[in-house]
Structure to design on (146 residues):
C-alpha cells in the first residue's frame, strides 16, 4: 500500500471512528434524557416545552423553538395546562397574543426535570475542563466557534 493510500485510509478511519463515537454519544444522551423524562411521566415534547418556558413565550415562539406547527404546541400546552403547569396570560406588548407562563408547580417541575437530566449523564465522567473542551471542539466542528 502506498503512503498516500495509507494516509487516506487513516484519515477516513479517523473520520468514521469519530462519526461513530458522536453517534453513540448522541444515542446515550438521548436514552438518558428519555429515561429521566419518563420518570416524571412526561412526553419528550412536554419536557422540551417545559425546558423552553424558563421565560414566557407565545405559542408561535414555542413552536419555532420546538420545530413544530403551532397546533401541535396548542395540544402539548393544553395538556400541561390541565396539569396545572402552564397558564396563558395576555401578552404585555401585544393585546392579540397570549403568553405561555409556567405556574409555580410548572417551575418546580422544570427545575426537577433539569436536575434529573444532569444526574448520571453520559458526560458525568468529564470534569468542567473536559466538558468545556468537548463543547469547544463540537462548536468548531459545527463551524460555530468564536
Amino acid at each position: 500500500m502506498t503512503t498516500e493510500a495509507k494516509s487516506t485510509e487513516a484519515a477516513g478511519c479517523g473520520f468514521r471512528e469519530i462519526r461513530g463515537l458522536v453517534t453513540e454519544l448522541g444515542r446515550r444522551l438521548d436514552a438518558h434524557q428519555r429515561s429521566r423524562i419518563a420518570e416524571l411521566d412526561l412526553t419528550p415534547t412536554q419536557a422540551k416545552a417545559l425546558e423552553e418556558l424558563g421565560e414566557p413565550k407565545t405559542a408561535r415562539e414555542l413552536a419555532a423553538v420546538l420545530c413544530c406547527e403551532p397546533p401541535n404546541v396548542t395540544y402539548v400546552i393544553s395538556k400541561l395546562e390541565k396539569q396545572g403547569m402552564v397558564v396563558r396570560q395576555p401578552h404585555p406588548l401585544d393585546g392579540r397574543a397570549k403568553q405561555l407562563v409556567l405556574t409555580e408547580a410548572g417551575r418546580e417541575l422544570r427545575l426537577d426535570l433539569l436536575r434529573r437530566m444532569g444526574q448520571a449523564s453520559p458526560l458525568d465522567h468529564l470534569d468542567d475542563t473536559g466538558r468545556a473542551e468537548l463543547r469547544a471542539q463540537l462548536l468548531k466542528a459545527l463551524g460555530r466557534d468564536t
